[in-house]
Amino acid sequence: MKNILVLIDLSPRSAKIAQLALKLAKQINANLLLCDVLNAPLNKVILFEDNEYWPFEDEYYPNAEALVNQLKQNQDNAPIGRTFIDCASISDFNTDKIKDLVVEKEICMMIVGVQHLTDLKASNADNYARQIIDHANCPVLVIPEHTRVKEIDRIAYLTDLRYCEMQVVNFLKAFNAYIFVTHISASGIPDMEDGYAQSLLSDAFAAQVGYNKLFLRNIKGENRKNDLETIVSTADIKVIALVNKKHQMLDRFIQTEPGKKRDYHNLPLLVIPYMNRYSW
To answer: Is residue 52 very low, low, confident or very high in pLDDT (cuts 50, 70, 90)?
Structure first.
């Protein structure tokens, strides 16, 4: 059985993230584990705005068990099936302890919140979300404060098709979502023509994956950020997925321009560890 680990600090905002995580757990048929890191300064990381799914009072929870019990109570009143919910704890913020917990509890995905995805640009010691991502031994779903996403049914996987990871596509299949493999050439490598990109996707991946919700989007030229914004809008993308520490895809995605905001930075970001570095 798959398990999702949600990093929380017992604040009302963390409760909102936990509620969204519960919806995702039901979507991929996974258990839910809440990790209490109250003694760690994750209040700088975990943020979420008010929305229609807010079922809790504006109060801090005394411990993870209290939040788990609240989620279970809400689940009892829900019309759909029950999800197993439990909690775990670590004594302080330590990426090695989080990695050990991932292995011990057989975690398939972690969830953490940030105020803005562009905050991930900083790599200093105070950027706890970036530390979690860079040291993760499983995929990490990062939820920005202003997201309006309610379900994951359309995913854009940003990659250079020449180096597309079969294991990533197989992982994304668990969401039973439409997957838009979005080709962006690695830095210094020429763009790919549409016909060749389509044949590469069809011959090298679609036939082997056996998934009929796999589609291609090919980004070329100088206006790649504008093209990505168009794809996100027209395909109604709900989540961006990419591999960390591979062709600088994460840093290229969160890069900003002066005075320019990108709508896709309001979407949840699924960051997958580089396969050559970790086994998950």
So the answer is: very low
